[in-house]
Amino acid sequence: xxxxxxxxxxxxxxxxxxxxxxxxxxxxxxxxxxxxxxxxxxxxxxxxxxxxxxxxxxxxxxxxxxxxxxxxxxxxxxxxxxxxxxxxxxxxxxxxxxxxxxxxxxxxxxxxxxxxxxxxxxxxxxxxxxxxxxxxxxxxxxxxxxxxxxxxxxxxxxxxxxxxxxxxxxxxxxxxxxxxxxxxxxxxxxxxxxxxxxxx
Length: 200
Hints:
Elements: H1 3-17, E1 22-24, E2 31-33, H2 39-49, E3 58-60, H3 64-68, E4 71-72, H4 75-84, E5 89-95, E6 109-113, H5 118-127, E7 130-134, H6 151-154, E8 159-160, E9 172-175, E10 180-183, H7 188-197
Parallel strand pairs: 1-8, 3-6, 5-9
Antiparallel strand pairs: 1-2, 2-7, 3-7, 4-5, 5-6, 9-10
Helix pairs in contact: 1-5
């Protein structure tokens, strides 16, 4: 990893540790990250995005073992995670109490992201778990390059990790237990095939 990218990750990790939100790249779009175990930091993400509280935030982790420290996937969900993660997929699983209710508006389940992006994974390893939501204002287009960040977002974050343009297709959100896709995005055909082949 380039020295300047590592320095940007270090600055972002320090900002997250201080309770701030940061902008970081993924294999889909730029994300808005803050300490997912810190209620006040999660509140800040909702405020920056102007996001309704009943629209849950997903959480990004460095790897599946890291995710299992804060979530409780079933055997079937874990098999799915092992097949598709890291990757542009959000998997809905039961959360542990270490993840505050504010993330999910009190619901027992949370979206898990393990981005297939070295910079995002390095940030998750250094500062995670972190929120995984697009770095835009609610209802506005997702951001594929930092130059397109809304001023309200740029001015509100503690750091921006800029690695250039991202591909742009958002992650597919899937509830494996229910066999249901909540948002169609990357790799949706392969996901549907897996769900068909692994029916309960």
